[in-house]
Amino acid sequence: MGMDIYGKKPTTDKGEYFRNNVWWWRPLADFCIERYADEVGFDGEGWHFNDGRGLNATKAKKLARLMRDDLDNGSVLMYELAYREKMAELPRQVCKICDGTGIRTDKVGVDMGQPTKELKPEVQILTGRTHGWCNGCDGVGTTEHWMASYPFAIQNVREFCEFLENCGGFEIW
Fold first, then answer.
1. How far apart are CA 103 and CA 114, in angstroms?
2. CA 97 → CA 141, 143, 146, 169, distances in Å?
3. Inter-residue contact 57 to 9 (CB < 8 Å)
4. Helices 57-73 & 22-40, crossing angle to 10 degrees?
5. pLDDT, tens digit, for every residue of 130-161?
6. Residues 55-73: b if buried by 16+ CB within 10 A, e if exposed
7. Count of H helices and E strands in the chain?
8. Long-range own/partner contacts, residues 99-108 (CB < 8 A, 24 or more apart)
9. pLDDT on residue 109
10. Rounded distance, CA 121 to CA 30, Å?
């Protein structure tokens, strides 16, 4: 699933269309709502749904200006670094494929030879065993927290800002 953001009255081709899959859009939308909603005058309701809500031209331009200022003064970079640190600190989760054993023993795993597959040297050190693998966790028994699947990057903010500067307002579909 993705979020297709269409400019209402684009002034350049950069303002016609912006797209993120849901994994990239959610942190970007949350960032905009958290940092700019009060100042720009929007509540962000609907920004996580593709039902046509968005901003008019005046608010889109103001949001772009505020974002550009934060890109220039390093605030977005600081937000990205803090976000990445927060994601890295999330607790790992028990692998649902192997129930935390690190070895996939269901029919699919057995058919693929996973219980006897040799582990990478770094996983051997980590787990204390040489064989038995799971494609869900690389044999470790845990996976990243599901929230870590939602990335935030300054480049995505730059691209959205460029879209905002040229879109003449937008709708999220």
1. 7
2. 9, 10, 14, 45
3. yes
4. 100
5. 999 999 999 999 999 999 999 999 999 999 99
6. bebebbbbbbebbbebeee
7. 6, 6
8. 100/141, 100/142, 101/132, 101/134, 101/141, 102/127, 102/129, 102/132, 102/133, 102/134, 102/137, 102/139, 102/140, 102/141, 103/132, 103/133, 103/134, 103/139, 104/133, 104/134, 104/135, 104/136
9. 97
10. 39
Contacts of 35 (CB under 8 A, 6+ apart): 66, 70, 79
Domain boundaries, the chain: 2-88+148-172, 92-143
User: Can you read off the two tokens belonging to residue 85?
Assistant: 């640190």
For residue range 91-105, list pLDDT tens digits in order.
999 999 999 999 999
The single residue listed with the structure tokens 């192997």 is 98
